[in-house]
Amino acid sequence: MPLLYIDLIEGRTPAQVRALLDAVHEAVVEAFGVPPRDRYQVVRTHPAHEIVAWDTGLGITRSAQQVIVHMVSRRRTRALKEKFYELLALSLSERCGIDPADLIVSITENGDEDWSFGHGRAQFLTGELT
C-alpha cells in the first residue's frame, strides 16, 4: 500500500494528469504486486521556478515535463525497486510520452506500525490488513 507523492511543473491538463497517475499505478501494481485497489496518490503542481532538479553529474537534461515521484512504502527488496524504476520509466514513456530522463524517484521505507488507513487504528497491527 504505497503512498505516492507526485510533483509536476504546472500546465498539464486533467486528462494528462490522470494518464500519468494511471501509468504510475500500473508500475506499482506490476512491480510490487499490490492489489489494484491499493491506490494512494497525491499530485502537487508547482511553477517551474519551484522545482530545481539538476543533473547530478550524469549528463541528464530535464524538461518542463519532469516528474518527481516520492513513495512511502513498506520494505521492498533491491530487485523489486529496480524493477519498479524500469517499469515506471517505461510506463510513463509509453502512456504519457515522458522522457525517462525527466523521471526522478525516491523511496522512503517504513513499517507496519507507521500506517493507519482510518478509524484511528493501525490496520496492519490489528490484523485487518496483511
Automatic annotation (TrEMBL):
Coiled-coil features, chain-numbered ranges: none
Pfam families: Tautomerase_2
InterPro entries (UniProt xref): Tauto_MSAD, Tautomerase/MIF_sf
Protein's name according to its UniProt entry: Tautomerase family protein
Organism, as annotated: Mycobacterium terramassiliense
